Amino acid sequence: STLAADTTTTAVCGFCATGCGLRLHMRDGEAVGLTPETKYPVNLGMACPKGWEALRVLDSDDRATDPLVRKPDGGFDPVSWDTALTLFTDRFKSIQNKYGKESIAFLSTGQIASEEMAFLGALAKFGMGMVHGDGNTRQCMATAVTAYKESFGFDAPPYTYDDFEQSDCLVFVGSNPCIGHPIMWERVLRNRKSPEIIVIDPRRTETAMAATQHLQLRPKNDLSILYAITNQIIQRGYVDHSFVDQHTTGFEQLREHVAGFTTASVAEQSGISEEQIIRAADTIGTKEAVSLWWTMGVNQSYEGTRTAQAIINIALITGNIGRPGTGANSITGQCNAMGSRLWSNTTNLIGHHKFEDAGDREKVARELGIGVDSIPTKVGWSYDRIMEGIRRDEIKGLWVIATNPAHSWIHQGEARDLLDKLDFLVVQDMYHSTETARHADLILPAAAWGEKDGTFINSERRYSLIKKVRKAPGLALSDFSILRGVAHYWGLDEMFAKWTDPEAVFRLMQQLSVGQPCDISGINDYQQIDRCGGIQWPWSQRDASECDVPEPQRRLFADGKFYHDDEKAKLIAAAVTPMPEPTDDEFPVMLMTGRGTVSQWHTQTRTSKSPVLRKLYPRDPYVEINTLDARSMDVSNGDWVRVTSRRGSLLAKAMVVPTVRSGQAFMPMHYEATNQLTLSHFDPYSRQPSYKNSAVRIERS
Ligand code: SF4
Q: Is the shortest distance between the CB of 47 and ligand 1 below 6 Å?
């Protein structure tokens, strides 16, 4: 056949943070097909539909192939890279001259390679003088990051995927891996211990249907329920006092705090029974290896950080950490969310250092060979504060890389107005057609996954390679090459002389990581990462001196030592806060949003380009409503309904289901209009948007 491959190579998938290994089938140096990699320790030969279609979405008519400049009539003109980067530099510099260096900011992503994130963050903050920059990881992982840092002393998901198979009890809180992380769910299905599966979720999700216990709480009662379970664990004698005494602080305060969360009081408000709470506590308390997992139901909440810490507390007080099958485990969303957490130079100084720490700034300056004065001394604004800065005319120019805020940001109508308010908006993306690109003054065409090299870091801390197996279309360049161009046109060739290619930057990252919990200085080179099926951090020179090849599955905290100065984990609890927008007579339905399908990814920019993936998902937006509510509105399955919140109104098809309770509704985030409805409200510690609690009204259309 003309499509027969002449060689193969491997690369990690570029959609979700599971990080499945794919084998790419090459002909004449170009990938012509792919299959899941059977030897990869993550996916063991499996892939979800998105992974199978990873190459198909590269061939699309709306790929950005030329730099595009906005014309006065509103259209775009293709221009050369020289014109585009001259304009980029002139416009941003003139804004800075007029309004100050802090008046331009960037919004990046969990979708580009770690080396590109490191380069972008260093270029923007050390070279171009920006102070404010954030990533779309604010929308998915900020809560877990904050929770881990406060509880463990470092943003350190402790687990390895083998834990899915080693647990005899798995607890999923606000997490639906059947849909969100299907290959992780496959790992659960490989568990031969007949585990108890406890799901805490207001919807009867696919995962809840497979659970042995489903605590179908009213939305946003998760913190109360977790405290009630903690109270029962303490009262019923399941605490591992030896572990608590040796390895944690704050147990007495926790005990006193949760004593007020009686089963009777919590059952009444949360919609689950006292017996369910007690049964869950008994199960967690008596099983040998309990792992607790959470995703966006927890993270995307106005009290997400404390909820995540309530999960961490349960793992700690029962001694379920550091052993096979245990852990308080945040599952990451995007393919390289962790790259953003460690390397984007946003919330943390590059390499998870601190902007406010003079010693850290000196170390970074020394390792990168730059002046310490070029490093900001304060943390920049989070995403929401950057948007607020636009409103207040303090941010006048914005550089958006591989993310789509005009679709995905909370209270979308307001977000779009703010993008239009900017003096200059640059969008760097692989497609020219995203909702955000429609607002751009300049579009920079970027190569995609499969068209460039670098590393991604998955949910279990595994560095893996992405590879150039296709040529990018037209004039599109890798984000790395675009950054090299920006550095040149900005006059920063000298500062970034060492940042020549992704592997050179990886070596800089290794130097920066020395002495950090995320130390990767023991990795030899990219080839070793490839040979080993990825390498989980930490892998320091000391680790490497004791063992040539890292074990394929490694977890943290086997020695009970955490990253605070006293080496103990902190047990943290706080008062439950009221829901910011409760339902009322005018808006009587609580709307939740989330992932709706295995076949679509986030704002569908890539996955909608695959005819196969499109067929697996309804084209029209839909809203899941309960059978009783549908009957009272005289609405049948498939009828159009109008969904209205205080912020916007849209039409969607009714999907009448028993899986959401009466008075609740669910809309997938993949549809463009969904965030017209959502409430702009944030976790006070992580600044993560609370996407899952907007009061709406639903009417027959
Ligand atoms: Fe890719 Fe995630 Fe699907 Fe694996 S589960 S194939 S990483 S999208």
A: yes
Do 609 and 678 sit in the same domain of this protein?
Answer: yes
CB of residue 49 inside a 6 A radius of ligand 1: no
CA 52 – ligand 1 centroid, Å? 8
Distance from the alpha carbon of residue 334 to the mean position of ligand 1, in angstroms: 10
| pLDDT above 60: residue 2 | no
- What's the pLDDT score for residue 545? 93
| Both tokens assigned to 550 | 């890292």
pLDDT of residue 3 exceeding 80 = no
**Residue 75 CB neighbour total at 10 angstroms:** 9
User: Which ligand 1 atom is nearest residue 22's CA?
Assistant: 6
pLDDT at 139: 93
- Domain range enclosing 74: 68-138+335-546
> Does 568 map to a domain?
no
Number of domains in the chain: 4
**Which atom of ligand 1 sits closest to the CA of residue 183?**
5
Residue 54 CA: which ligand 1 atom is closest? 1
H helix or E strand, kind and range, residue 603? none
Q: What does the pLDDT look like over 427-486, one tens digit per residue?
A: 999 999 999 999 999 999 999 999 999 999 999 999 999 999 999 999 999 999 999 999
pTM of the model: 0.96
CA angle 29, 34, 35 (to 5 degrees): 140
ipTM of the complex model: 0.99
Residue 1 confidence (pLDDT):
44
Q: What DSSP state is assigned to residue 375?
A: S
Verify whether ligand 1 is closer than 6 Å to residue 57 (CB atom). no
Local structure of residue 672 (DSSP, 8 states): T
Say if ligand 1 is within 6 A of residue 214 CB: no
Neighbours of 32 (CB within 10 A): 18
Query: Is 211 in the same domain as 85?
Result: no
First to last CA, the chain: 53
Work out which ligand 1 atom sits closest to the CA atom of 49.
3
